[in-house]
């Protein structure tokens, strides 16, 4: 379809020739050493098919997070929402399975948190949450990709970081309140009264337009979609997302997606929402970077990840392969293992894990 569109455009050209919230930028990021990864014996032969260049004309309904043509209307500015992911909340998250892109990484106390990203606010379910506070690693990614960042509260050091980013759009739930954000009584009764804040797509979309935030993408995303297999058999991938939390992703050949599970000492259980829907992804992207202490007090230690080059894995279609990435103060790019070729993603949802490079030996494929 895309080739036909391009051909039509060329023909038309031949015929025609013949006839928010912003402040000043402050770069405080440090450099890092390249991370190390485990070596796995190749079991299959890698194959590649041509990928679609980022500059090729896209369909009007093109989803820049998944490569699919499934958007309605012209809105294509991704909206990212912070979600808790500690053991008490898993099983009570609402609408999390509907996201187009995920990022999971460690916050304070070795607890993982998730940033769920939708290609536009209209794709967010009518009730989504619970919503949690902002953290620097997620702010960095949201800024690098031009996401509109939605969260509930933040520590002083995170507030200062967001204020330092030029042109960074964000919505702090406490500033807007009802009816855009509200407390869900059921979540409050099942978890606690400070992890029951929710929102809904229609209400959030209306507030975004009312406040004048951009609804079309403000940055080109570094995702090239196509087909490429790796040399590592990866029907199951198991990894530590933090020192105390382990996840696994199991490939479903019938649907072509990986199903996420939570691995505990008591056993492995599907990562499901309150409605019972399991989290799935076409791509599992694992990035290893150097972790450092960003801020601490007498109770908690907040961590962040240094910018610079690093390595990791992409898992899709039942195989895995090594990749490289570069996180600068304002951008993130991905390449194949050669460090030059843009990384090819399978069409569909991506689940990205940013983890401490000291955990790079704690990943296995089978």
Q: Which descriptors apply to this entry?
A:
six-stranded antiparallel sheet; 23 strands; eleven-stranded mixed sheet; alpha+beta; YerB-like fold; 366 residues
Provide structural commentary.
16% of the residues lie in helices and 32% in strands. With 366 residues, the protein is α+β, with helices and mostly antiparallel strands. It contains 6 helices and 23 strands. A hairpin with a 4-residue loop joins strand 11 and strand 12. The protein has a single domain (79-365), classed as YerB-like (YerB-like fold).
Helix-strand blueprint:
Layout: H1 2-18, E1 79-84, E2 101-106, E3 112-118, H2 136-145, E4 148-151, H3 156-164, E5 170-172, H4 173-176, E6 181-183, H5 185-190, E7 197-199, H6 201-211, E8 224-225, E9 232-233, E10 236-242, E11 245-252, E12 257-264, E13 267-270, E14 280-281, E15 283-289, E16 291-296, E17 301-305, E18 308-316, E19 319-327, E20 332-336, E21 344-345, E22 350-356, E23 363-365
Parallel strand pairs: 1-4, 2-22, 4-5, 8-21, 15-22
Antiparallel strand pairs: 1-3, 2-3, 6-7, 9-19, 10-11, 10-23, 11-12, 12-13, 12-14, 15-18, 16-17, 18-19, 19-20
């Amino acid at each position: 379809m895309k080739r036909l569109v391009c051909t039509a455009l060329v023909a038309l050209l031949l015929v025609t020739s013949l006839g928010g919230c912003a402040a000043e930028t402050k770069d405080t990021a440090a450099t890092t050493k390249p991370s190390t990864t485990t070596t796995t014996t190749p079991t299959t032969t890698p194959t590649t098919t041509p990928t679609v260049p980022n500059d090729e004309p896209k369909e009007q309904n093109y989803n820049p997070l998944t490569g699919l043509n499934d958007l309605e209307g012209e809105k294509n500015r991704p909206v990212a929402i912070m979600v808790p992911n500690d053991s008490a909340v898993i099983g009570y998250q609402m609408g999390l399975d509907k996201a187009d892109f995920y990022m999971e990484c460690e916050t304070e106390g070795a607890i993982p948190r998730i940033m769920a990203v939708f290609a536009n606010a209209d794709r967010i379910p009518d009730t989504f949450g619970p919503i949690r506070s902002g953290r620097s690693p997620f702010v960095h990614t949201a800024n690098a990709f031009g996401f509109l960042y939605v969260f509930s509260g933040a520590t002083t050091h995170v507030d200062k970081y967001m204020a330092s980013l030029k042109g960074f759009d964000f919505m702090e739930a406490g500033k807007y309140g009802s009816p855009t954000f509200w407390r869900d009584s059921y979540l409050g009764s099942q978890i606690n009264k400070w992890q029951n804040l929710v929102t809904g797509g229609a209400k959030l979309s209306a507030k975004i337009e009312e406040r004048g935030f951009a609804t079309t993408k403000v940055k080109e995303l570094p995702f090239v979609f196509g087909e490429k297999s790796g040399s590592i058999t990866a029907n199951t991938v198991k990894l530590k997302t933090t020192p105390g939390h382990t996840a696994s992703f199991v490939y479903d050949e019938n649907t072509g997606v990986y199903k996420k599970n939570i691995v505990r000492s008591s056993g492995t259980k599907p990562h499901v929402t309150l409605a019972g829907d399991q989290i799935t992804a076409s791509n599992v992207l694992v990035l290893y970077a150097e972790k450092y202490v960003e801020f601490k007090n007498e109770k908690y230690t907040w961590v962040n990840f240094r910018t610079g080059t690093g390595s990791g894995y992409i898992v899709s279609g039942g195989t895995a392969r090594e990749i490289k990435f570069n996180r600068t103060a304002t951008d993130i790019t991905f390449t194949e293992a050669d460090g030059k070729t843009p990384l090819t993603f399978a069409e569909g949802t991506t689940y990205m894990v940013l983890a401490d490079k000291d955990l790079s030996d704690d990943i296995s494929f089978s």
